[in-house]
Amino acid sequence: MEKITLAMGNGGEENAKLIGLIQKYFANELLEKAEDGTLLSKLDSPVMSTDSFTITPLFFKGGDIGKLSIAGSCNDLAMMGAKPRFLSCSFIIEEGFLLKDFERILASMASELEKNVAFIVTGDTKVVPKGSCDGLYINVTGIGEQMADVSQRRIEEGDMVLVSGDIARHGASIFAAREGIELESEIESDCQSLWPLVADLLEAVEVKAMRDATRGGVAAVLNEWARAQNLCIEVNEEAVAIDEAIKGICEILGFDPFVLANEGTFVAVVRESESKDALKILKKHNPSAAIIGRVTSTYPARVVLKSPWGTRRFLDMPSGEILPRIC
Amino acid sequence: MEKITLAMGNGGEENAKLIGLIQKYFANELLEKAEDGTLLSKLDSPVMSTDSFTITPLFFKGGDIGKLSIAGSCNDLAMMGAKPRFLSCSFIIEEGFLLKDFERILASMASELEKNVAFIVTGDTKVVPKGSCDGLYINVTGIGEQMADVSQRRIEEGDMVLVSGDIARHGASIFAAREGIELESEIESDCQSLWPLVADLLEAVEVKAMRDATRGGVAAVLNEWARAQNLCIEVNEEAVAIDEAIKGICEILGFDPFVLANEGTFVAVVRESESKDALKILKKHNPSAAIIGRVTSTYPARVVLKSPWGTRRFLDMPSGEILPRIC
Q1: Which residue of A78, A209, B62, B199 has the fewest CB atoms within a 10 Å radius of its CB?
Q2: Are A237 and A306 within one domain?
Q3: Do B220 and A11 touch (CB under 8 A)?
Q4: Are residues A131 and A207 in the same domain?
């Protein structure tokens, strides 16, 4: 068998073979016991999160839809201060999809699961006729165990805002890959699992809020927080690192790097007194990490960007089409 | 706004409006607090299950993709003896999808949630360009609290097998709707939430195993069990109720009703001594419920159908394409 067939989604013999293939990559005790669902161990502070992935292209510099699906869903848990534990995984596969590509994606998921010490415990497969989806869509829903009370409602005036690395990598790399831009080879997505870094951070300081800056980029995260708490977030533009190749693409094409997606870079809020300790941990994982701003009450529910020349402008909530299917 | 636009999946302003619309239908305390994930209450015996729905047509006699997605996912939990509690919900929507259809589907999901006393606590929306998916796909992942130890590994020789109603309704109704068959109006899908019935059943008897007979129908469930336990399941064909209109379609088109999907009908295994009590409960909800067979050791890992005339044939695990996109 070289391609996924409609029969592999029939609930019968061929479906069982496809499920067998998937189970080989995700093998664990709970998945082996899975029936219509899977009984898990007791959970004291469960956090639940879900994400569907429709990215194109399926393979890109720095990752693929498989790595992204596990990293992305585990990152949503990590951002809530929760250690990823149990994941479900559901595939919608287009008839004719190459089995070798599917296996490559499964292997990539398995490797990312290891980094999170998380397990796929239940799953679903649907095969749709040619033309009914574009290749492969993956849903990963995660359950984590919360280790610290991390929530945007804890953000207060005087807190400091940090970013864990340089921004806009994922959006720029997907755009470059799609458009065949020459700089493509230089731009790698930041796609990665954040739990190992977050675990270090939570041990060192009291993190008030975290959010990975995915769709809508850093601009969306900061605006959501400013609105939720009716506070102002003031950002020093020059503190935010952006790769030179990405700056180039953004200048030529008129993209705002603050709006481009990241898939392994997050924004965090801590008390001012803990901001330097937090930065030290972040810098160990990525030297581009920085303290980028402060929570104030200057313009409630707004985000302000301060340029190196002392000018100020509002950084708005993104709107319009931006880049579809980047995750 | 009349149609879903690409901008509604951008992670920014328009996305927030779409999420606001969804939250209106699913309103509950936990969903309101949702950030990247949602903190749930402590769970002693959590069961996790996932299902993606790609059914076509989206609206059919007896339900729609919204009702099906909630009922189907909650039924997977119910079949594990688990009371549905917390659900995640992820939409992949094709650009141009009518908002009024989307709202109709949301309303239908909300009504089915009530029947299960379950809550959507976290979600995700992706909008893909025209042609990248066919209308709307929904993933619902559920967490339930297990109330009884229900598992196929408890099935033993001598146990009785029951079915909760007449079979093949869902598959036949979807097929009829797609092909514009005249009998269409008479055939209604069995799509429904099973938890209320299962709760009654668990109170009355000790259920060993349950499985809703979805893709692959009753044939797939019985074969999975026979293989898992290396036992034989012997079924009295005439005990299994099938609607006359459905029988007609199957005879004309050569379908086997044992292979057609159900979406609100399940097979259960209980001790012989409790089988009549179990039947009484099932019949209260559907008079077509019946004791249909017995677990034996005659042909290990096989399912045997006994005709009213005393002949016997193996009921095999389904194979081939059957009907794609029925769930």
Answers
A1: B199
A2: yes
A3: yes
A4: no
